[in-house]
Amino acid sequence: MKTPTYHESKPNNKQLIRWCKGHSSGINTLITIAHLPIFSSSSLIISANEWQLNGFLMIFLKDTFARGAVPFLSLISGYLALTSYLKHGYCRMIVNKAKRLLIPLALFNLLFILVFSYHAQVSNPSYRADLSLYPFNLVGWLQAMFAINVLPANPPLYFLKDLFLCFLLLPLLFGLAKLRYINILFAAWLLYKVIYVKTTLIVPFAPLEFFRIDILFAFYVGMMLYHHGKDITLNNNKLNVKIIISYLFFCLIMAYPLLILNQSEYPHLFLWLKFLIKLGGGISALCLMSMLCQPKLLADMLRLLSKYSFTLFLTHNFTFLFIPRLFLAYFDRPYLTNLSGWFYVFVSLTGAFVAAIIIYEIWRYSKVGLRNLFSAIYRKV
Is the dihedral angle over the CA atoms 99, 102, 107, 112 positive or is it negative? Predict the structure, then answer.
């Protein structure tokens, strides 16, 4: 009897990739929700507050419900990483990931600096004091573009840098994953770092510092699941519904202490609450996307939108620079306790999606036009 090869013994990647494409649009919507402007919940979490429904709903929407998106994307990336590594080899994989992750990271941070950050720092030197943009500083601009030791100019794009670091460390992670017991110990060590955020360094070299160590942890867990032949798709809808409903109730419960307690007085409690929210969010995102991708019509619609999801991730902060100003020009400040707040959420998400679709289509058609132009020039030469 023929012994199956390494790839043959693993779950069907073609089916999984199609499944992941259906997930990406939904997950990036959650990321977009977490970055909604005007609704700022960070100050509410840091300090103790009296009960207020608007603050409670802000924390629920941005800091509990939407927090599972990044761990879920990291898990999926780790699950698919070994296929790319074993198929293409380390060097080619890194080149491909640099094109896919580092170039968009640098380009869209540069655009954000030119469109907003530089002018904001000129008019207000206290804006993003961690960035050295004005007066012009080449090192400061490169740090802001590539997220070296500072949060990038376009903050959500830190995920691209952290994800690239995961691929950069893949041979080390894969080697650890193959060592029995050592792999569990390493996962437990990462988990400890995730909860207590002792340091985001894995190796003593500052450019390899992670902004969120939970990205590496989820990536490693996904890689381990693939290495051991585990299928991550969840087809039990009854169980999925129970997990999602349980997580929603959990988020509603957890939003209350996050609002009324002072983080400095209960540091360990807040660390554990944030960890449990991310863990539950990642699992419930897996359940939710598994359910959404099953009905054929909805699955086809999600796959249709998925080609715009990366553009949505790259551009939603640009859209959010203008939507609040436009909204406030015609409406009062939105609050989630009334209809205007939910209308603002709808307008923001719709605007971000429409902008992403337009930008993607313009780029697609211009790329085809440039290719035809260069082909015509080449033929004449």
Answer: positive
C-alpha distance from residue 173 to each of 82, 188, 208 (Å): 10, 14, 14
- Torsion sign over Cα 30, 167, 200, 152: negative
Give the domain range for residue 128: 13-295
- H, E, C per residue of 108-130: HHHHHHHHHHHHHHHHCCCCCCC
Per-residue model confidence as pLDDT tens digits over 190-246: 888 888 875 566 655 666 788 888 899 999 998 998 888 887 777 788 888 888 889
List of residues 6+ apart from 360 with CB closer than 8 A: 307, 308, 311
C-alpha distances in angstroms, 107 versus 30, 145, 335, 372?
Answer: 23, 7, 34, 24
Residue 361's closest CA among 315, 297, 298, 292?
A: 315
pTM of this structure: 0.85
| Number of folded domains that form the chain | 1
Q: Which of 10, 24, 84 is nearest to 305 (CA)?
A: 24
Residue 127, in any domain of the structure: yes
Is 325 contained in some domain? no
Q: What angle do CA 250, 155, 318 make, to 5 degrees?
A: 105
Domain assignment present for residue 177? The answer is yes
**311 lies in some domain:** no
Q: What is the pLDDT of residues 321-363, one digit of tens each?
A: 888 888 888 888 888 888 888 888 888 888 988 998 899 888 8
